[in-house]
Amino acid sequence: MSGAGHRPGPGPGPAVGYGVAGGVATVRLDRPANRNVLSLELVNGLGDALTRAVGDPAARVIVLTNSGPAFCAGADLKRSASPAATPPAARWSLPQILSLMMDSPKPVVGRIAGHAMGGGVGLAAACDLSVASSEALFGFTEVRRGVAPAIISVVCLPKLRRGDALELFLTGRRITAARAAEVGLVTTAVPPERLDAAVASLVGELSAGGPKALAAAKRLVARVPSMPRDEAFTWTTELSATLFASEEATQAMAAFRDKVDPPWVPSPAPGEAGAPGAEAG
User: Which domain covers residue 32, as residue numbers?
Assistant: First the structure.
């Protein structure tokens, strides 16, 4: 997932890289010199790149990753305004970015190859699934700057137990990637030399799912927990009937009977970036 073999795109700008290969759109935070802080340039580029990935017919899965030793160091402390503020040159705000990730019909996978602090933890938590390097550290460091993790709490609190949230929000302490996985902020942590293989394996599993089925599964997780039981049963019954009657389900059932892959499962060339099991440097 390193970008080898990816075709560059003109839209996102230099702060964020974009490329597609093997059905995978890779969005890369690419300002390592300032630890990929949420600067105006990076936020604009990230919103543009994610929008492009969602609409890209060549992309089945979106991978969000980073260049350099930091995934994202959080808010740009050189800019004193709240990250919720939208300056005139801004095309995107942090809440819009997080919502775009959660509402994406395509799975968003985090390849967390460096430290994530503050808003960076929010980006990691907004991913549907994520693999972090075991060398990465995570922390809600806002309280040590006289503020609180307000915006990112919207995406982090649903993944945290109350006790873990209080501990991490109030102390501002940094935790290991293994602890971040234990409390639910990321899916798993692996040694850095296994990061690409683990992400590729996860992407391969996601690519086996039907595109509309994956989008529906995301909607279930987002909506059902907050719905009254009767309303949830009514909505899910209608959704199930729609899915079973879809062309996608018909193709999948036929493929199952014929013992072949359904038509959406990619068959990338061996070693191609994004190919299940392929490693990238």
Answer: 16-207
8-state DSSP, 210: -
Same domain membership, residue 108 and residue 233: no
Are 99 and 221 in the same domain? Answer: no
What value does the mean pLDDT take over residues 86-93? Answer: 79
pLDDT of residue 85: 60
Q: Which residues are designated catalytic? A: 142
For 33-59, give one letter per residue: b (16+ CB within 10 A) or e.
eebbbbbbbbbbbbbbbbbbbbebeeb
Across the beta sheet with 188-190, the strand order is 16-21, 24-29, 61-66, 108-112, 129-133, 188-190
Token pair belonging to 139: 């922390």
Q: Which has the higher per-residue pLDDT, 241 or 274? A: 241
Whether residues 203 and 217 share a domain: the answer is no
Which residue type is seen at 115? H
The pTM for the full model equals 0.86
